[in-house]
Amino acid sequence: MVGTNNDVGVCGFLWPTCYRLVPCNSSGKSCQSNTICVRHPECDDRPLCYPIEMTDETMCPPMQNKINLKWKQNGITVAGGNGQGHKLNQLHGPFGVFIDENKNIFIADNYNHRIVEWKYNAKEGEIIAGGNGNGNRMSQLYLPSDLIVVQQNHWIIIADRWNQRVIQWLNQKQQILIHNIGFQIESQICEKTPQYGECSTNSACGCFHMVGTNNDVGVCGFLWPTCYRLVPCNSSGKSCQSNTICVRHPECDDRPLCYPIEMIDETMCPPMQNKINLKWKQNGITVAGGNGQGHKLNQLHGPSRVFIDENKNIFIADNYNHRIVEWKYNATEGQITAGGNGNGNQMSQLYLPSDFIVDQQNHWIIIADRWNQRVIQWLNQKQQILIHNIGCHGLAMDKYGFLYVADWKKHEVRRWKMGEYNEGIVVAGGNGKGNKLNQLSNPSFMFVDEDQSVYVSDNNNHRVMKWRKDAKEGIVVAGGIGQGGNLNQLYYPEGVIVDNLGQIYVADSMNHRIMRWYEGKEEGEIVVGGNGQGYQSNQLYGPAGLSFDEEGNLYIADHFNHRIQKFEVIL
């Protein structure tokens, strides 16, 4: 109000027509009755007489007191909540959110590269910008992070973050408002993590060791930029231009390279939860099979291996049905992706397949066709034998694309370069059957880490062995003091997985439990199971393969129960 401190005013309707307002008296800044003299910047910042009825509380009700507001402690899901995905009832990493006066919800659906609007009480949203895949065309967005909605004019201004632009959408027409602008970047430091080691819930990210720091310190970034587009670091001080950081990159001729800051942003590479001492619910959920032993599509018969892809589809080596099956997320039955034509040695047949590797990008599966003693590749129903006459049980592939095969007949693990299927190179065992540190006895499953160390379930020796690259003998990292059910023992170990913290997860088959061991510790701990052989939700019967999804949930091939059990992680 004119004549008062600038901090004092009157609450009124904002949008009267300026020419209808009478200027205040120029000397005393006074007005006729039923009006009040106020400053009005929208009307050339002139002191104007404002009608009293325009400041009435019936027109402009006061706000509630917002100091120390409280909220109910149990939230209600109003958009998404149907798992990560791109369907209209799903979201994937939502970022900015805005609620309009009609309680409609506008969302920057980050990893779906779109802006969606969920009408009040709707069960799904509708795309109002983007949604055409990531990219820099005018009709595309790339990791949008925030938005401003002006409903009166039907336009949206979007922070199109990865395209480094601010773009306006107006009824499906686009206009770039600001080019080449960066947005706030938050990156994650990874310590005590190997080069390219796991550091994010996004499997496309890994740890890059920074130049000038201890090799155990790095930054978590997107793994797969094109090498020739990266600029070498300054040769003297290992420095880089602004918005880049100097990192080691072995995949690019091991040169120190300037890595774009936006490639290490936490929205692209979200940090993992602390995986030390994770716990899981003790009652599993059957997500495949569980309908008795059989060969129908809703049944399994002795599953030995399980793998969960990024869309939570489940791939299973359905051992005694001589097939590989895929169960789509939340499906009630599977579909055959390899075999399923009875046991036999024809190219279209499998015989007790025990393990497999899935490459979804190239649509192939490599299978340990155990009883046919061959490693075979299936590519869109076309088959090729990669390795003949081998007692294959377990398979693994390292980050360089080398294929590892555990040979239960020769009691060894060999490594092959893809496309060069000669005799291979022995990387574990190979000194006859035995229990010495340079021997194995019926190796089953295995895991290869970032350093090409091989962890082998040494089945008949009731231990897990670790063979470092080029080592002449292994070290015992779990079990190894005879078969038994104590915490320092294993009983015919099968599936094995090692996380980036060095925690070793083992399917302790005949103890009907999953164990976690730390290298150097004398005993492990029970993760799930361990309640005796049985069919109850807290029991297992001869667990074989195991796998984790991106959220940390644990999946187990419950062999003699003919089912896949999911144990949900406790966050």
Q: Might you state the CATH topology name of the largest domain?
A: Neuraminidase
What is the CATH homologous superfamily assignment of the largest domain?
A: TolB, C-terminal domain
> What is the name of the CATH architecture of the largest domain?
6 Propeller
Numbering strands along the chain, what is their spatial order in the largest sheet? 4-5-6-7
Mean pLDDT metric: 87
Shape estimate: elongated
What is Rg?
A: 31 Å
Q: How many structural units, i.e. domains?
A: 3
Show unreliable segments: none
Binned, the helix content reads: under 10%
| Strand percent estimate | 35-45%
N-to-C span: 54 Å
Quaternary organisation: single chain
- Count every beta strand, where a strand is a DSSP E run of 2 or more residues: 43
Give the class-level CATH name of the largest domain. Answer: Mainly Beta
Largest sheet: 4 strands, antiparallel
The helix/strand class is: mainly beta
Structure characteristics:
571 residues; mainly beta; Neuraminidase; 3 domains; 4-stranded antiparallel beta sheet; elongated
